[in-house]
Amino acid sequence: MDKKTPPVCYFYGDEDLLIEEAITAIKRKYLSPGFESMNLQVYEGNSFNPVDAVGVANTMPAFSEMRIVIIAGAESMKAAEQKAMLAYVKEPSPSTALIFFARTYKVNKTAALFKYINSKRWAKLFRELSEDEAARWAENYAGESGKRLSGTAAKRLIGITGTRLRDLRGELDKLVSYVGAADIIEERDVEQSALQIKDDNSFDLADAMAARKLGAALALLKVLSGEEPLMVIGALGWHFRQLLRVKSLSREGLDPYKLSGRLRVSGANLRRYLAGCRNYSEAELLMVIKRLGAADTAIKTGQLPGDMALLRLVMDTCRA
């Protein structure tokens, strides 16, 4: 294990895209192509057996430089599980990268496990970016696609999506396609590209899907039939990621006023999100987001016509 990647990492914070990118970089670095499944094990912090996790972590990797063990939702680990993992963390295997991650900055920093990991400088906070930081990130991301995002366009885009990088990335990808051969993305492009993800019809469709009301969802899908399918998927993706975020933040016990502020949404929209996320577990919301990504890919690669991909998405989500 080199100096840049310690044998144990604890990634936590609100900016889950940056956490995901950090974990992906470690996977790419140490897992040999074709042998990923043999050397990667993921556990859920609220339901895993630490004896099993430690046993896997102490197993030599197969045809890869390192084995990777991930404990997702580390903030949910019980005291007994943390104690068992602490014993391993104090004497970790040199051929395994053990990664704890939590999609919140509210972890128990007084717990012995976190304190030890933090004392070794193995913990890293990935906080939500400010609007200025998010704008710079958006400009850099657009630059990787050969486009220059103007300052006013960046501010307008953040005004629509908020500062969460996963939402920004999804909408920037669509903007890059929208402007075509143009080198610069201007504010008018953001306005004209139909990325108004708070559009009432798209919001209503997402509400109907969240409530699993198939008839209402199909009726709203018909209303949106003249819209670009990728734009509708972008709107739905933003909505369901918001539901996932509300679900996660609700566990922190924030009052509605603070929750509204963290999400940068109105009280009325917050009530709609709270109502929608009651119908789903976090695992189910992640599955919906995965379906959205699959539909987006199916359209872009020509596997399915846009209207068919949307219809299948709506039906699968409402019937799940």
UniProtKB/TrEMBL annotation:
BP terms from Gene Ontology: DNA-templated DNA replication
Swiss-Prot/TrEMBL keywords: DNA replication, DNA-directed DNA polymerase, Nucleotidyltransferase, Transferase
MF terms (GO), sorted A to Z: DNA binding; DNA-directed DNA polymerase activity
Keyword Nucleotidyltransferase (UniProt): yes
One protein family per Pfam: DNA_pol3_delta
SUPFAM superfamilies listed in its UniProt record: P-loop containing nucleoside triphosphate hydrolases (SSF52540), post-AAA+ oligomerization domain-like (SSF48019)
Gene Ontology CC terms: DNA polymerase III complex
The keyword Endoplasmic reticulum is annotated on this UniProt entry: no
The EC number(s) this enzyme carries: 2.7.7.7
Enzyme kind, highest EC tier: transferase
DNA polymerase III delta N-terminal domain segment(s): 11-120
Record's catalysed reaction(s): DNA(n) + a 2'-deoxyribonucleoside 5'-triphosphate = DNA(n+1) + diphosphate
Domain DNA polymerase III delta subunit-like C-terminal: 200-315
Family: Belongs to the DNA polymerase HolA subunit family.
Protein name: DNA polymerase III subunit delta
Classification of source organism: unclassified sequences, metagenomes, ecological metagenomes
